[in-house]
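task queued by scheduler; priority normal; single chain, no ligands, no partner chains; default sampling; output format set to structure tokens
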Amino acid sequence: MVLRIQDIESGDLHTGTAGWKTGVRVLGVAESFQRSDKRSLVAGVVMRGDLRVDGYGFCRPDIGGRNATQELLAMYDRINRKDIRAWMLGGSVISWFNVVDLRRLHESTSIPVTCVSYHLSDGIEKYLQEYFPTDWQDRNAVLEQAGPRARVELSSGYPVFLSVEGMSLERGFKLVDMFTVDGGVPEPIRLARLLASSMRNSGCI
């Protein structure tokens, strides 16, 4: 198993004290692509805690490449906002196994990272070995570096898996919970996903 799952008592997270201000801004990240594409289209949405959209940007990681982290950092630089307080990623394995380095994102921007996913990831190592025989160990090392994911239940009643870098699990949970209106997808990620899909399908980028 590449990503270990750590079960957390969600009640303990709900009753913690590590809150966020309603004016906090996060950069929500999600993508759209088809396997036949050369590059995916990743959208980043700046959203405040009151759910107002405050900016956006795009980047184009290679399908099956190893430049996802670099592309996200370049997008962050182009957005050029100094008031973003956290990354909120809709997954760390994007663009067909182009793995995002959560630690590098945090260290390069001094902004903590929370990554939301929805499924168990058993068997990823097998696919890495099959599709990327020359560098699967490097990709796998980035995944392992992220450490265990935590299965938590949001106030909406939906379970998600969280990875955090540069903040506590409790603080990451409260941030995701704060931005989730219903279901299991936080609004910054949901909007970034819609924006990426719409832009890709329209052929605008």
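post-processing summary
- The radius of gyration is 16 Å.
- The chain has one domain: 5-202.
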